[in-house]
Amino acid sequence: MNRFRLSIPFFFIAIFAASGILAWSAPPADKGQGVLLSTMQAELERAKTSLAKSDPAPYFISYEVYDQHNLTVAGTYGTIVTSAMGNHRWADVTMRVGTSAMDNTHNENRDSGISSGALPLADDRDAIARTLWELTDREYRRAAPAYAKVVTNNSVEAAEEDKSPDFSQEATQAYVEAPRAPIAFNQKEWEEKVRKYSALFRKYPEIYSSTVTLQIEQTTSYFVSSEGSKVETPGLIARLVVEANTRADDGMDLVRVETFESTKPDGLPSENEVTAKEEKMASDLKALREAPLAEPFDGPALLSGRAAAVFFHEVLGHRLEGHRQRGDTEGQTFTKKVNQQVLPAFLSVYDDPTLGTINGVPLSGTYSHDDEGVPSQRVPLIQDGILKNFLMSRMPITNFSKSNGHGRHQAGFMPTGRQGNLIVQSTKTVKDSDMRAQLIEEVKKQGKPYGLYFEDVQGGFTLTTRELPQAFQVLPVIVWRVYPDGRPDQLVRGVDIVGTPLASLNRILLTGDKTEVFNGICGAESGSVPVSASAPAMLFSEMEVQKRSASRERPPILPPPGFEASSRSSTPTSQSGGAR
Amino acid sequence: MKNSRGVPAWRAAATLLIFLAVSPFGVAAQQNQIPAGDTSDPVLRALRTELARSKAQLKMDNVDSPFYIEYRVFDVEQFDASAAFGALRDQNRTRLRLIRAVVRLGDYKLDSFFNAGQGVSDILPLDNDELAIRHQVWLATDQAYKRASEAFSNKKAMLKQLNIDQPVDDFAKADPVVSIGSLAKLDVEPAKWTKMLESATSVYRNDPQIQSFTASLNFTAISQYFVNTEGTVTRHGSAHYQLVLSGSEQARDGMRLERSPQFTANHIEELPTPDEFQKDALKLIEDMKTLREAPVGDEEYRGPVLFSNDASTDMFFDLIVPNVLGRRPAPGRPARTVGAFASSWKARVLPDFISVVDDPTVDTFARHGLGGSYKVDDEGVPAAPVTVVDKGTLVNYLIGRVPIRDFPVSNGHGRASGSGNTAPAPGNLFFRASKTSTREELKKQLLDECRNRGLKYGYFVDTLGPRLAPRMLYRVWADDGREELVRGAVFNELDIRALRSDLVAAGDDPLVSNRTGLPFMTIVSPSVLFDELEVKRADNTNEKLPDYPAPALTAGR
User: Is residue A130 within 8 Å of B551, Cβ to Cβ?
Assistant: First the structure.
């Protein structure tokens, strides 16, 4: 089942939160990279030459090694719950047996193309070579039988609709970005900050759980392939995620998450900026607890730029991933719509991993080369409402035989076409400040009692397979009812946007004039990758929302420790619970 | 993947870590003396404050107040590292504090301990901030109470559908215990140990045919706290240290051969020194070379088999331990317990010269530290020696506070593996023989038996791998007593019936085997001789050999 989820990145952080290294010392920088890369090249060459004599023989082998240093500190309520610093080296060995027309990775055998494992941390040529040999041997033992299976299946099954080859021909790349010296993490200093940031929620008894997680990850990726490519790219991401939870009296869980990101170790926002956001989260949650439940609704809606960005990521972005256009299980919403109108003519969409920032906001989906060693590029996907292109990895599809630098993966997974920085542009704009008035006008026009304004979202997910409905869901957190009669806007809770992709996309009437960015972690079959989506605010003539399913578990029965006295009179053996 | 609501995913991941990563390891930590009865421990203070508050005040509309609440805290500090082919591959140092909160509704006879009502785990702050610790305890208690309430309704509804002849109480009464021991702290110098791993694994250079050669360590110090509303307060620390060497190779015919000798101790001084570890690594390389070139075992063999004390600890662990635990069967099932000895109470399960006693109260045996020692179990019940098998007859099950028929109270064997539920488990399980023989006498007995039956050879198994498959197995030739290593042979019916009927002699050489994984336990058992076992050729397909050779070594390091 292909179910994709865009979320704020604490899931990603979770993976590393509990592991770390004791004492980490920087390896001698230039010598280190020299040994690693040259050993990878030598061992790849040996594998290529040696296995050429095997039957069946691989026609493509690549090694990708991630050399990573990271710091993860998580805290709650003014304390640390985990703090770890570490370095890791991970190798992915990719192998294709057969021919580019048909190889072991065909259809459901795609996973047979990759084997992964940890690599020695030290620059020990023999140990690195030996480990790469072990992984390569293991991978060949997977790839060869998988290829035999593909050949058999192909001879007994009916011809496939998309007869594209399994692997595209691409130019050889040689790209080595200047290596960066390992940064020195100041663990103690970050622990103090996490304590401080997480302590802020102590004064709010209704916020009964909260976490602050900091992660700084410096990764250098080394890629070599049997085609002769050699790509070395350093990267860094620093991320601070603040999450706060409360529960309404009827049992609905309410969560606010704020993420701060930077590509510089010291680029995270100042203390004042973080605490101001935290105070806003606290006041939002307080307001949400008191807010009435939303009713199912079908009518005009205004999506903020961030909400519209997530909407496009789920509804459009995932369906434009190249590999989803072939294979028997995919819904293929857009496969046969190339050069047809799929969006209103005033909208264009492109994906540009080469872009670093929008309006000064750093974008999470930026990279110079994708995970198949192909240079990234700006890809116009939809031009004036007309579908032009897909997000291509090296898996070709009918009429699109080349990669456009979107083959992405999480270490250990086979790359597929994925989004990087998805950007929606509009030529039919009004000033952002006029969008609310436009919504009210539309509400009046349709004679509806109110419209909805989606101010912020926490993520979403979508289904693209054939067996399941072609559906998507966006998970809004701050939603307002906007009344046409001048009443103040009313915050509501428990709303999920639902619908089917094609219908929803054509209900966009106009957009705002300012682009907003949503940075997140996107999970799909090639693993979790950092992405961004950017869009202006959008007015929809019609948007369908449903009530969010919620537990009926009450808020905590007793008041939180430290707040016993204030509520003792009202809640010692509380009837309905609820420590306010 | 509900990671964006409710419990943050990193918590789930952290909990998972404990279940997964805490499992393999070994021996002793530095202990910080804290006077008994001391109330300055912020963790204990936080637990006791929330316990008192919850006991007095926790009550929902139309739901009973709890009759029992317990908190168990696991403060785990771990250092693990691994090296392959002479180079360090990873090292991690982690510390986590986890809580398990159990809230019971109803009474001792019938309570809410069922499905999701069996408790809630969460992570606690590492900082000794009493209010912050209480905050997490408060959340866990609240959730445990709500789940218990729902589980109790479900349980009562389910019981209405069943007809239960001989009801057994849900929860055994236990006297309150106060026992404040010292905390455990990991005090190791990582560089010394990682260097030892690198050095040991560099011996792969001696043998180009070894395909994989790794060494790893896992050092763990655990401080545990337990409080309940019956008045029990306990705290104790323990540490376990483990080193593992492992090698993998293929014989010329493709047969996969693996070895993984382990060293597990609860005092770091009991681990091999770097020199000894280096020698062990060299020995492993030598053994694996011999193994690779050894003949394949015959297709069929039926005759005497001598188990070394090492092999016998593994054999008893697999065949006896799961069957002597008093674990309650599913509701409505008439059996006394689960396992192969469920209907063997007061029946013979072993030869009459063997007795089995579990004694968590002893720390050492023949100067070896015992990993399964404890004073009070993880349910707050004091440990005591329990005779499990007396002269071959099963007389007791090891049991915690969940009673089974005829065993209404705990005998101090409720053990926890991390922040999950407690379950019955042994501490230090001793297999004792009333008549013993020296190794030479056992070998002579083996050979005599072979000659009597006209067999050319008997088998001696030195070490076992997973599923009791022999790893170092020797033919002992009847004519001259020489030992010949063979590979690719497995036992056919090594089971409890064979143990009861075919085990004929025991050695005078009991070996301490500290087991890996939580809860920590130890098996102490001697060499044993079976007068008849079936040994057959393993029914495994041989993998093909690597398609190209390992990379040539450069001049050295």
Answer: yes
